[in-house]
Amino acid sequence: MRNGDFAPNRVEAQHDAVSLLAGAKTNQSAESAVGIMTSSGKAPRVLVTPTNDVGKLLACLHSIKIEGDANVLSSLRIAQLALKHRVHKNHKPRIVLFVGSPIEHTEAELVKLGGMLQKNECAVDIVNFGQIEENTAKLEAFVAAVNNNDNSHLVTIPPGNHVLSDLLLSSPIVSGSGGGGGGAAGGGGNLDEFGVDPNFDPELHMAMQLSMEEARRSEEEAAKQSAAAATTETEPAAAVAANPAMDLEPEDAELQAALEFSMGMMAQDTAPAAEPAANTTASDDVEMEAPAAAVESAGADYDPYSDPSFVSDVLGELEGIDPNDPAIKAMMEGLSQNKDDPDKKE
């Protein structure tokens, strides 16, 4: 057990694995209980009777010393006897055996004990590490004898640059069908979503939770920034669409140009008309009384004083003017001749 093929050595690696199993089993149910016993020394002995106090189990591991040779048969019998006195009799008993030293017993002796444990409905899980070449065949025969409806398991872990408890975490002993309410070391488990037992390693569990929370907040912040960027991109488009002058069809553009031209022409027509209105004299009143039909038919070159009818109307309204005066008649005849012959007008 002092060999360093498992970091830091076999006995320390076994202690970590037992801590993992104890925490997983007690966390599975409030009625679960785990006990610890040795299999070496002068005689195998129970160090902690089945309990759900993980602190007591962990403190017990630090007091275990390397001494003597392992006696697998005797330790299994004592473990079965300790489980008979468990509090909850309706829970099926289970023993988890860690084997890191050579087994001195024969295969026949192990098979005989396996049959007795099966008869008593006691499941056995075995963690085979260290002396796998000489122990694997014996342990396979033992598990085959004790197994009942696949309630017992054998996990063989070869030496290498790995952690025993990490490999045991994904094994059927932890993730598979666990056993009853007490044992030399419990099976089963209640791991979080990170594959970590909160009771066994609460600091790692808290660190993983904080990491996941930080990652979630980063994702939410990135999503908010993306939404804000998308909103900023869509606002100018809405402003352009709201201004009809910025986005018009060809026909609408022509209509808009015609409307602007028409408005400009109206402004030009009304501006000059406002100025003469303030400078109108009394003499202009006579000119404004010209017939509208004559003005419209004559156009822009119309001269009201060249029109005989207009001059006749004006003379008729003036006092002291006799329309029958020979001079007046001669003038009117001249206007009539000029109207009929434009060339004589000049």
| Distance separating the two termini | 143 Å
Number of helices: 13
Helix content: 40-55%
The secondary-structure class comes to mainly alpha
Strand order of the largest sheet: 3-4-5
| CA-based shape | rod-shaped
Major sheet description: 3 strands, parallel
Please indicate the count of domains.
4
Order of helices and strands: HEEHHEHEHEHHHHHHHH
The percent range for strand residues is 5-15%
The overall pLDDT, averaged over residues, is 75
CATH superfamily of the largest domain: von Willebrand factor, type A domain
Query: What would the CATH topology of the largest domain be?
Result: Rossmann fold
Uncertain regions spanning at least 5 consecutive residues: 177-190, 237-248, 272-300
- What's the CATH architecture of the largest domain? 3-Layer(aba) Sandwich
Quickly name the level 1 CATH class of the largest domain: Alpha Beta
Radius of gyration: 58 Å
Number of strands: 5
Outline of this structure?
Helix 4 runs parallel beside helix 5 (132-146). The chain has helices spanning 10-28, 54-61, 72-84, 107-119, 132-146, 164-169, 172-175, 202-242, 250-278, 282-288, 292-298, 308-317, 326-340; strands at 34-37, 46-51, 94-99, 123-129, 153-157.
Describe the structure using short key phrases.
54% helix; two-stranded antiparallel sheet; mainly alpha; three-stranded parallel beta sheet; Rossmann fold; rod-shaped; 346 residues
